[in-house]
Specification:
The protein has 2 domains: 114 residues, Quinolinate phosphoribosyl transferase, N-terminal domain (Aldehyde Oxidoreductase, domain 3), CATH 3.90.1170.20; 156 residues, Aldolase class I (TIM Barrel, Alpha-Beta Barrel), CATH 3.20.20.70. Strand 11, helix 10 and strand 12 form a beta-alpha-beta unit. The longest helix is centred in the middle third of the chain and has 35 residues. A 7-stranded parallel β-sheet has the order 7-6-12-11-10-9-8. Strands 3-5-1-13 form a 4-stranded antiparallel β-sheet, with helices on one face. Strands 2-4 form a two-stranded antiparallel sheet. It is an alpha/beta fold. The radius of gyration is 23 Å and the shape is elongated.
């Protein structure tokens, strides 16, 4: 996997909120020291190997503060300890105002991208066709960053919000009084659903087979099933409907993703990248002239 081409749109209101949290009024330190107006350059440097990500977000913060991005490494590529991945130029005040916010975004983002890349590589080594889809459990206010870095890590997004697809969970099924009622409703509303996908998460093999037989569902999702049991379920579902996609989620991480990938599922749903350890990196600021 090479350079990441995922492009993001960051609302200025979001960037402003990131900045406001860290600078509610002023930077007292640079003001007192008299260095707020001094020309300076900042360097973001890795301290460990990582898939580089979060530079778009960091750049947005610095630009909003009036600084200039001079150079940045390609996102989605591996970076090495000691590598300078972003260079910025501005006043001492601008660079210190963006320092901690931008560095944290890159640290978190690179952690997510790195963990995602490792999951994808492990899964595809044993099942080249499997899709790794990351669930929408990113912290509120940081979805732009997390989703961007999941894509740069080589995975896809399960869905980015509840307007994306019809995704029926057991909570919906209980409220609608059973899987049969759910399938009836979907058949009635199929024309309203249009091109959007229909996915149903089930609680049992019986429900999975009903969903597969219905002919109106694109994907059946199994949850918290052990790999050995999952393999048997996949075989039985395929006999009923060989065209329906089969997904599995629940407790899948770097430790066990290979066990799930070899079962023959089409999609592995995970939120594990969102809990990845941030990458260790630093920012050096120096005066010019």
């Amino acid at each position: 996997m090479g350079r990441c081409t995922a492009s993001i749109h960051l609302p200025l209101s979001l960037v402003d909120e990131w900045i406001r949290e860290d600078i509610p009024f002023m930077d007292l330190t640079t003001t007192i020291l008299g260095i707020a107006d001094k020309p300076a350059r900042a360097h973001i440097v890795l301290r460990e190997k990582a898939v580089i990500c979060g530079l778009q977000e960091a750049g947005a913060v610095y630009r909003r503060l009036g600084a200039e991005v001079e150079n940045e490494a390609p996102e989605g590529t591996w970076g090495e300890p000691g590598q300078e991945i972003m260079t910025l130029r501005g006043s001492g005040g601008q660079l210190h105002a963006g320092w901690r916010v931008a560095q944290t975004l890159v640290s978190i983002g690179s952690g997510v991208a790195t963990y995602t890349r490792l999951m994808v590589e492990k899964a595809k080594k044993v099942n080249p066709k499997v899709v790794i889809a990351v669930a929408r459990k990113a912290p509120p206010g940081l979805r732009h960053l997390y989703y961007h870095c999941v894509l740069c890590g080589g995975a896809t997004l399960h869905r980015v919000g509840i307007s994306d697809t019809v995704l029926v969970f057991p909570n919906h099924t209980r409220l609608a009084r059973g899987i049969d009622k759910i399938l009836e409703k979907i058949k009635e509303a199929r024309s309203l659903i249009g091109e959007r996908q229909v996915v149903i998460e089930v609680d049992s093999l019986d429900e999975a087979l009903k969903v597969a037989r219905s002919g109106v569902v694109d994907e059946v999702q199994l949850d918290h099933v052990e790999p050995d049991e999952l393999r048997e379920m996949v075989t039985k579902i395929r006999k009923v409907n060989n065209n329906i996609r089969i997904a599995v989620g629940g407790g899948i991480s770097l430790k066990n993703i290979e066990e799930y990938a070899v079962t023959g599922v089409d999609v592995i749903v995970t939120s594990a990248p969102f809990w990845a350890k941030p990458i260790d990196l630093t920012t050096r600021i120096e005066g010019l002239g």
